[in-house]
Design a protein that fits this description.
Layout: E1 4-13, E2 20-29, E3 36-39, H1 52-56, H2 70-73, E4 87-89, E5 92-96, E6 104-109, H3 123-142, E7 150-157, E8 169-175, H4 180-196, H5 200-211, E9 215-219, E10 222-226, E11 237-241, H6 252-270, E12 276-282, E13 294-300, E14 302-304, E15 309-310, H7 314-319, E16 322-324, H8 328-335
Helix pairs in contact: 3-6
Amino acid sequence: MKFEAHLKETIVLDPKNKTTRAIPSEIRKDPLTGRTARICHFMKLKWEKPDFDKMIAGTEKICPFCPDKVLSITPYFAEDLIPEGRLISGDMVLFPNIAPYDSLGAVATFGSRHYIPMTEITPELIVKGFRLAFEFFKRVENSKHPESVYHIINWNYMPVSGSSLIHPHLQVFSTSSAPNLMRQELDAAYEYYRLKGTNFWDDLVKSEESEKKRFLGRAGRTAWLCSYAPIGVAGDVLAVVDGVRCTLDLTDKDISDIALGLTRAMAAYDRMGIYSFNMNFFTGAKDDDFTRFHLLFSPRTFFNQALGTPDVGAIRNLYNETLCMAFPEDIRDMLAPDFIF
């Protein structure tokens, strides 16, 4: 496995005495796609948490996912897909997304509680939410719908992540159109398999587990590690499930192991003062032997918290070039104590 990096150095002069100071940076290539990430803007990975009571005060009054509204204002699915209109599990509800990303889009709430602090999200809660989403995927698959190719869960937690609501929920959709990065990864993994005769993700996990530089641990078939070329400014946590090609290949045990690992990532980043994240599934189609199901957990925060400056600027937004403010190997050392399974 080749991990490529270009080391850079900036020389600046002190304004008082003109002594020189060297500022390092690094451009890393993702070993699969060649996508580049800049390791720069080095700063202490520590943020101040806001006043959550003030942030959420009154938001429940207009929240469409709270129990007094969710069953009266959310829409129904067409009867040929979900005859009962919505999927319900306890106090969790899955219903059509009225701002869909694709023709088969849904939202799944995490229950009746309007605000759940990140450290109070339990593995059991995540498992229940994922299982509700999987019931939707199975309905789509059983209907032989042409969009039943890639089954995806996205999770935007808290407003910093892009969530427009406090109430925790999942974005759930099935699509025949793989999103950009997922499509690029699938294309590159296929080419890797064609040229080398091995699976990139299997080779990556084997290499990372051997070197230990970014490897976090294992829970069942799921390997946890820090991304070599991260997307998030505070790094990313990557989970790869051995032998699994697509979302619907995941077993109940796999889902439980994934949920446990996600809560470990949440606990670790909470200590940095980070309280928001994105989580996405990356999946192949059911016969894609050249890939492995994996997910990315990417914490979201600020460049300047006092000003509310988001962690996505022009370089990321327009060049699609990512920035990380610490070396992933150092981030791994910060996260590792939580990943003892």
